[in-house]
Structures are given as structure tokens and as C-alpha cells.
Amino acid sequence: SLTGAEVRESLNELNRLARTAGAEVAGTVLQKRPRPDPAHFVGRGKAEELAALCSAAGAGLLIFDQDLSPAQARNLENVTGVRVLDRTQIILDIFARRARTREGKLQVELAQLNYVLPRLTGRGTELSRLGGGIGTRGPGETKLETDRRRIRQRIADLQREIAEVRRHRQLLRRARKVAPVPLVALVGYTNAGKSSLLNALTGAVVSVEDRLFATLDPTSRQLRLPTNEVVVLTDTVGFIRHLPHHLVAAFRATLEEVVEADLLLHVVDLSHPAHQAHITAVDGVLEELGAGGKPRLMVFNKTDLVEPGELDLLGRNDVAVSALTGAGLDTLRAAVADALSTWRTRERFLIP
Ligand code: GDP
Fold it and tell me: Which of the listed residues 13, 98, 208 should we mutate to test ligand 1's pocket, taking the one with most ligand atoms within 8 A of CB?
């Protein structure tokens, strides 16, 4: 049901996801078929072709853009002799590498275990992949049952720990509400330039990488507006299309910063050919988070890379910037001050 352009865009993204996860991409293979093969996802003949390609290229890993069933992954590994991963596993791997805060790490582990649990087949390799030291088996139980039980226990522990961290964060947040510092959150498709913009606006140093998911946990900095007012500017995890639903749920707490924000800055990479689709994807996630109605400024970034004529197509309230050259940043600061004062006036009239 995807168009050719959508498939190419999705594979490009998978390419970058793979590189972000530390892989070197030897090549990309496309197969067109009416429906996935139940045993191998691709046809058996294609699987053998992939095996030959891998050995010719010296590749040790096959990554599929769609999620595979445990049986499909296993069969593919048997036919090709190389390790097989799907998109969700790559994203989980990246999340695991990037998680910085305690909460982020807990959430990643929870998402990994939720992914693994229904896939446990008794082969025993899944757990060693997680690097977890799963201990001795209980008397009269198979290894599989013991593993399942221990994973369920760990999931319950993680959920409790996350709830605790969250409660603590809510206390901090309440304290912040007493001192009324407006909260402004940067949202946007991954690689749009959110971290760069946070740096450019606040002089902060957070890692900027031409890779996906450079930002996992929110990073907050103070930003002084032309009105001399100080706001907290928060960077959020990059959004991405087709992020599996269970991952969105696992990272909800990270994105809670978005729900709490007084103003959203929706950062768009104007130079990206698919930027319109990115805007739609981000709007969809915001809607899901219940943040669809938040005051929002559209910030079109990377204007240094586009023809000046393209800027004429932007709306009156849109802000055009370049985090790289600093163009438009003063306008953006003024627009933030403006949006916050409009919002405040409205709040005052709505809430007596
Ligand atoms: P994030 O994923 O949204 O946080 O994006 P980053 O801030 O990590 O930026 C992604 C890539 O885009 C990096 O290679 C940045 O150097 C680059 N980038 C960010 N802003 C600009 C810009 O205004 N112009 C250009 N040419 N590149 C930019």
C-alpha cells in the first residue's frame, strides 16, 4: 500500500537508523510481493539470494524494515547464516545506547523486555542478547518457564521503579509551577535540528549528531527572551514515522515534557524533501499525546540550505531560522515572547 517514494524514504531512514546503531551498510535490497511469506518474510529464493549477497559483501547482519515474527527471524537466520534484526530491534538498540537519565534507562529496559517476552522460544539466545545475568533454573521447571517468570518479575519491578521516578519528577514539576517559569518544548522530526537550535538559542552544549535519535532524554536549558523574561527550553526525543506503538508508550514519560509545556516549538528541516510528511507525522504523535491543542510555533530550520524563493511559501506566523548561521534567531526569540504573552492573556480571561 506504500508508494515507491514512501518505500525509498523508509529505507533511507532505516539506513540512517542502522548507521546510528553502529552498523556499516553494505547494501539495500528491495523485494516486491503481494504479501509476506509466512516462513521467511521474503520468498525462500530471495532468502538464498540474500545469503549469497551477505557472504559476497562480508556482511554479518540483515536488517528488515518491517517487524518479523520470531519464526521468520529464526528461519531467515538458518537460511542466511547471519544475524537477522528488524526495525523495532534497531530502534530499541539505539534507545539503549542513548538513554542518559535513570528514567530513560528504565524505560528502555522495559521496552526491550516487553519485546522479548512473547518471542521467547526456548532457544536461549534472546536472553544472552540482553546481556542479563539470568540465574539458575528452578526445580521441575524448564529453562523457558524460568526465563519467562524472571522476565515478568523484572517487568513488574521496572514498572514500580518508573512510577517512583515519575512521582519524584512530579514533585519537582510542582515546585517549578510555584515559581512560574514558562516551559517551552522543542518538538520535531528526528534530525530537524532541535539540539542545534537549543545550543544556538542558549549557548548550551548538547551532542549534535547527523544521526537519528541524538536526543533521547529531555535536556533543559534556560533561555532569556528579549523581554528579559526567562523560560525553560526543553529538547525532546526526535519523532519518527512508524515508531511502533508500544515504543511510544514506553517513552511517554519522556514526552510528558511536551504535555506539560506552555508552548511548543515545532522544528522542521525545510531542506528535507519529505518535510511535509514529517510535519504530519509529528502532528500525529502530538495528537496521540493529547498535546494537539497546545499553543505552537512552526519553526522552519536549515534555511541556509534552501532557495530564498521557498521562504515565500511560509505562513505569516511561521519563523524561518538557521541554527547553523544564526539567521532568524532574534525573530524566533521575539516570537516566543509574543506567543507566551498572547497565551497568558488568554489564560487570564479563561481561568478566573
Ligand atoms: P535533532 O535530531 O532534531 O536534535 O537534530 P540535530 O540538532 O542533531 O541536527 C541534525 C543535523 O542537522 C546535524 O548534522 C546538524 O549539524 C544539522 N543542522 C542543524 N541545524 C542546521 C541548519 O540550520 N543548517 C544546516 N545546514 N544544518 C543544520
Answer: 208
